[in-house]
Write a structure and sequence with these properties.
Structural class: alpha/beta
Oligomer: single chain
Strand order of the largest sheet: 3-2-1-7-19
Strand content: 15-25%
Radius of gyration: 29 Å
Number of strands: 36
Pfam families: Fer2_BFD, NIR_SIR, NIR_SIR_ferr, Pyr_redox_2, Rubredoxin_C
Shape: globular
Helix content: 25-40%
Protein name: NAD(P)/FAD-dependent oxidoreductase
Largest sheet: 5 strands, parallel
Number of helices: 28
InterPro entries: BFD-like_2Fe2S-bd_dom, BFD-like_2Fe2S-bd_dom_sf, FAD/NAD-bd_sf, FAD/NAD-binding_dom, FAD/NAD-linked_Rdtase_dimer_sf, NasD-like, NiRdtase/SiRdtase_haem-b_fer, Nit/Sulf_reduc_fer-like_dom_sf
Pathway: Nitrogen metabolism; nitrate reduction (assimilation)
Cofactor: siroheme; FAD; [2Fe-2S] cluster; [4Fe-4S] cluster
Length: 812
């Protein structure tokens, strides 16, 4: 029996572990594998760190291979134990803990380190890079104590860090030495469009600024620039680039330049030693994007498995990204230089931009902003080097001149025309051919394709393309296999709700047990969803499961970054009285509330209340909870209407108060905001609310599905009614229909877009169905109580309000 060769991998990151995954598939019995990782975490997707910061994913969701995977594949894994010495003559490595491991094959995948500017103050407390989980944790910790953040670097990494810090509640300024952002991926027009989008999200930019000094005492207090100007900052994030981590290789005597020098088969300068990923330098280039690193890993794995393969010849890079919700794409050489010509089209209304660059009748570069659908096909033409003479306008427009947009090539036709080697999932380097092979091999859903190939397993931006390929290449009908509400179950919302109804399931644990949850305890996505669905279906029998609610909903107040809470008492229709104002002022003074603020919904917010003071604050306010913390009716905003305004046609104040009193305490899939405007001048902004009522001569317009948040959506006109009673009935029916049909955590804007206004109208325009919906919501509301009052009157519940120890399931 042949002895297995010993393989040691130094570096537990994406490039090295992708190489190991390929080796296991090609030659599963060839090697005894040992992996050393400097971080105390299993292999995770570094690309998704920005999503963790921005609240789109948690740490568990970005793990690529969990600890069980290493065990199943008989891999010896040493976490938090970096290799400190390589002996290339004896073929052994030594770790920081003193552990020694012999090797026949050694793979260096040590990655890169963030580049820290060599300026005074760069080593102060509060100055960090943005490279790993520890950096994320430091940024989250800082956001709880400090307010002002500066990100040095306006490239992709800097913008992702800035977006995450914005989500964490910090005031963020991005400092960039260049005249425009992301100059390595975008030309100036696309960059300016991106900057406007990001400024609308709250980012601030200081361009053409060179940081000369970080001032402050032990901790950073701000930046000083070469022109003498200053910027205050409690947290400074350096995102100015990366440098290959070559120190270990250099000390071992391997040939290094900027990176560890390798040939076309990723061989370093010592026998049996290879390098892959950001630490490797191939033909003078060290790559920082994931697709080239995976291409290197594929070549190396075949070499190590004894499979014939062409060498790695370098990569033409492309970048398809979603920067803070904005799609951008670039590939090849996209700047105008002598000997090239370019075509571009810019639509400021649609927020789209396309540019192609040509040389000698070949496509050599492209930039896209807003709509990046054609990115893979353009990238394929750049790599192929084929002549595009006569097709230039077709490439620019995405369809042949003379065709209307609607008559352009269909998405399926574009997918069919793609070459098999076109990259579909840039994050994981998955080609069209790999996905097609998986589909023909039996994968019948996006989830199965993801599990098999990792396509769409990172940022998710390629999911529509993956789904399109599934439908295009599946033999026979595609199975209607939907992704589950989370990773704990393959079941979707409708299947879960139907099962709860059919089987009479009455508790979260019962649902998870009967429906065979993969994770018996569930997760932060499914537990709150199940808790809502059960309460919606069984308002009389179901006892709300507090532990399945977010922290804000458990404590009935909004938790702040410093661990204190904000308290928002209900002020019906935005109308208060001198007595209420005096009570609020007295409570704020007595409990040293640091800030009292008017909210955007015409209410007063008491910010900075200690957890142990919450019951006493509620008791002395003697007002109802404004539910500013929950997925519930938040507020009903009103203008003064006909009561005072000379333009008012109806009593908007009275209508608003009536609506708020009718639906307060109502639990909903997502938060719900209402407004009533007293005339079509719409001072209460009713047409960007979940439900808005606008007074007209002789009646009321009812608008639904609006949103004034990050993605603004104008509400759709549901209908016109004559009386206040009809407004109440239609509002009740709409809200109950939304409660019964929407996914948990789905706002009305997304729900209305998904199901369509006509489908909603078709239900609500049936008088019997409308009245039945209204009756069901009244039954639910009759069983609700004010949570503040309930806690005030219950000593056992009051005992829960001790100083905050943990913040689980925190509301976003």
């Amino acid at each position: 029996m042949n002895r297995k060769k010993k393989m040691v991998l130094i570096g537990n990151g994406m490039a090295g572990m992708r190489t190991i995954e390929h080796v296991l598939k090609l030659a599963p019995e060839a090697y005894e594998i040992t992996v050393f990782g400097a971080e105390p975490h299993p292999n995770y997707n570094r690309i998704m760190l920005s999503s963790v910061l921005a609240g789109g994913a948690d740490m568990k969701e970005i793990v690529i291979n969990d600890l069980a995977w290493y065990e199943e594949n008989k891999i010896r894994l040493h976490l938090g134990d970096a290799v400190v010495q390589i002996d290339t003559k004896e073929r052994k490595v030594v770790s920081a803990s003193g552990l020694k491991a012999d090797y026949d094959t050694l793979i260096l995948a040590t990655g890169s380190n963030p580049f820290i500017l060599p300026i005074p103050g760069a080593r102060k407390e509060g100055v960090i890079g943005f490279r790993d989980i520890k950096d994320c944790e430091l940024m989250m910790e800082a956001s709880r104590k400090y307010k002002q953040a500066a990100v040095i670097g306006g490239g992709l990494l800097g913008l992702e860090a800035a977006r995450g810090l914005l989500h964490l509640g910090m005031d963020v300024s991005v400092v960039h030495i260049h005249p425009y952002l992301m100059e390595r991926q975008l030309d100036e027009p696309a960059s300016r469009m991106l900057q406007r989008e990001l400024e609308a999200q709250g980012m601030k930019f200081l361009l053409q600024k060179q940081t000369a000094n970080i001032y402050g005492g032990r901790r950073a207090e701000g930046l000083e620039f070469a022109d003498g100007s200053r910027l205050e900052a409690d947290l400074v994030v350096m995102a100015v680039g990366i440098k290959p981590n070559i120190e270990l290789a250099k000390e071992a005597g391997l040939e290094v330049a900027r990176g560890i020098v390798v040939n076309d088969y990723l061989e370093a300068s010592a026998p049996g030693v290879y390098a892959v990923g950001e630490c490797a330098e191939h033909r003078g280039i060290a790559y920082g994007l994931v697709a080239p690193l995976y291409e290197q890993g594929s070549v190396l794995a075949k070499r190590l498995a004894g499979v014939d393969t062409a060498g790695y010849e370098g990569s033409v890079t492309s970048t398809k990204l979603k920067v803070s919700g904005v799609d951008v794409f670039s590939a090849g050489y996209f700047n105008d230089v002598p000997g090239t010509r370019s075509l571009r089209i810019q639509d400021e209304l649609e927020g789209t931009y396309r540019k192609i660059v040509l040389q000698d009748d070949k496509l050599i570069g492209a930039v896209m902003f807003g709509d990046t659908t054609d990115g893979p096909s353009l990238f394929a033409k750049i790599k192929s080097g084929e002549s595009v003479a006569g097709k230039e306008k077709e490439l620019l427009l995405g369809y042949a001149p003379g065709q209307a947009g609607a008559g352009a090539s269909s998405p399926s036709a574009k997918l069919a025309a793609m070459a098999d080697d076109e990259i579909i999932c840039g994050c994981n380097g998955v080609t069209k051919g790999t996905i097609v092979e998986a589909v023909k091999g039996g994968c019948a859903s996006v989830g199965e394709i993801k599990a098999c190939t990792k396509a769409s397993g990172s940022c998710g931006g390629c999911k529509p393309l993956v789904e399109g390929l599934l439908h295009l290449y599946a033999e026979g009908d595609v199975k209607a296999v939907k992704e589950g509400i989370c990773g704990c179950t393959p079941l979707g919302r409708d299947e879960i709700v139907a099962s709860i109804k059919q089987m009479g399931l009455k508790s979260v644990r019962e649902v998870m047990n009967v429906l065979e949850w993969r994770e018996p305890e569930g997760c932060s996505k499914c537990r709150p969803a199940l808790n809502y669905y059960l309460g919606m279906l069984w308002p009389a029998e179901y006892v709300d499961e507090k532990e399945s609610r977010f922290a804000n909903e458990r404590y009935h107040a909004n938790i702040q970054k410093d661990g204190t809470f904000s308290v928002v008492p209900r002020i019906y229709g935005g109308v208060t009285s001198p007595a209420e104002l005096k009570r609020i002022a007295a409570v704020a003074e007595k409990y040293d509330v640091p800030m009292v603020k008017f909210t955007g919904g015409q209410r007063l917010d008491l910010l900075g209340v200690k957890k142990e003071d919450l019951p006493k604050v509620w008791e002395e306010l003697d007002m109802a909870s404004g539910h500013a913390y929950g997925k519930a009716l938040r507020t009903v905003k009103t203008c003064v209407g006909s009561t005072f305004c000379r333009f008012g046609t109806q009593d908007s104040i009275g209508m608003g108060i009536r609506l708020e009193k009718a639906f307060e305490r109502l639990n909903t899939p997502g938060k719900v905001k209402l407004a009533v405007s007293g005339c079509p001048r719409n001072c209460a902004e009713a047409t960007i609310k979940d439900l808005g009522v606008v007074a007209i001569d002789g009646g009321w317009e009812i608008h639904v599905g609006g949103n004034g948040g990050v993605k603004v959506r104008a509400a759709d006109l549901l209908g016109v009614v004559k009386t206040e009673d009809e407004v109440l009935e239609w509002t009740a029916a709409f809200l109950q229909h939304y409660r019964e049909q929407a996914n948990w955590n789905e706002r009305t804007a997304q729900w209305v877009e998904r199901v369509g206004l006509d489908a909603i109208k078709a239900v609500l325009e049936q008088a019997e169905e409308r009245q039945a919906l209204a009756a069901r919501i009244e039954d639910t509301l009759s069983r609700t109580t004010d949570p503040w009052k309930e806690i005030i009157e219950n000593e056992e519940l009051r005992k829960n309000f001790e100083p905050l120890r943990d913040v689980q399931l925190q509301n976003s």
